[in-house]
Amino acid sequence: MSASTSAASTLLLGLIGQSIQGSRSPQLHEEEARQLGLRCLYQLHDLPQDTSAAGLDTLLTAMQTVGYAGCNITHPFKQTVLACLDSLSDDAAAIGAVNTVQLRDGKRIGHNTDWWGFAQSFQQQWPQARLDKVVQLGAGGAGAAVAHAILTLGAQRLALHDADPARASALAARLNQRFGAGRVVVADDVAGELAAADGLIQATPIGMQGHPGLPLPVEWLHPALWVADVIYFPRETALLKAAKALGCATMNGGGMVVYQAAGAFRLFSGLNPDAQRMARHFASLSD
Question: What residues does shikimate bind to (predicted)?
Answer without folding.
Answer: 23-25, 74, 99, 114, 232, 260
